[in-house]
Amino acid sequence: MMRRCIELARRALGQTAPNPLVGAAIVKDGKIVGEGFHPGAGHPHAEVFALRAAGEQARGATVYVNLEPCNHYGRTPPCSEALIEAGVAKVVVGVVDSDPRVSGGGIERLRGAGIEVIVGVEEEACRKLNEAFFYRTLHNRPFGILKYAMTLDGKIATTTGHSSWVTGTDARHEVHTLRVACDAVIVGGNTVRRDNPQLTSHHTGNHNPLRVVMSRRLDLPRSAHLWEVEEAPTLVLTEGGANPDVQQQLMKKGVEVIELTPLTPAKAMEYLYDRQLLSVLWECGGTLAARAIAEGAVQKILAFIAPKIIGGQSAPSPVGDLGVTNMTDALTLERIQWRTIGTDCVVEGYLRPQEKG
Hints:
The protein is of the alpha/beta class. The protein has helices at 2-9, 46-54, 79-86, 105-112, 123-129, 131-139, 169-181, 189-195, 244-252, 265-274, 286-294, and strands spanning 23-28, 31-37, 62-67, 90-95, 116-119, 143-151, 184-188, 210-214, 234-238, 256-259, 279-282, 300-306, 333-341, 344-351.
């Protein structure tokens, strides 16, 4: 049943920020009598939709929900009170909420009303589903994911810059699905000039992330897929006073331009946090990727590895200079997973938090 809640929650991938992904199911006499998911900020929560669907059958029933029911007034009333009023007998919770306004309070309120509460069912899966939400509430910044595709010898393009395509169709499809789940995807000006990417999910009707270009000097092409904003919005981040003519041209096309001084990955993430974003996907080149890592703007790595070798001393690699001179200083991933996708392999892991000295 908890896996069903996760399945329901995922229907709103990329659409709930700054809220979490939540699904709920109500069971009575061994049958699901109501279920729902949270579609986005300002809308009722998953438990409310499930209770509406169940009606009077909710009385004496068991409610399954992947995240602790809230116990505070935000844009909507607390779900804990709705569950109490409905007369449910038992609530099964996947994981405790990390939001200080909720954490443990919803569970305590339910138990205080005489409702049996079980916590920690499919906890790891529930936590991973909302890892961006947990990170944002604990650190007050979006969750950063660095994604790149490289050959077996660690190259993201040939010596001429040609990069279409490093990986196969299956791996590229997974990247498109990943974009659906993210609130923004970031590239640098170099990627726009060389690759002219679309940075969409490539699926009609699916959520598309906010496409973000970081460019200090705005030395950008006049024509690019990213300037076509009918399918997905584009934001260009630049430094104060940079190339006013290009700024005007972009804005006339419907592209949003924001000046940040200094323009750094850390500053960009601060700005995107203020815009209520949860997760940010970095699909940039090696120079910007290295700086994003160094400034703590990346927490998770997704490396797609193709069984190809192209060689070339000047062929670009996915991460630029990090100042590492000894192998003992190399950044190490933890909680690593290896998977094969078609003929390619993907390594997923998390950067260890850097110690502040």
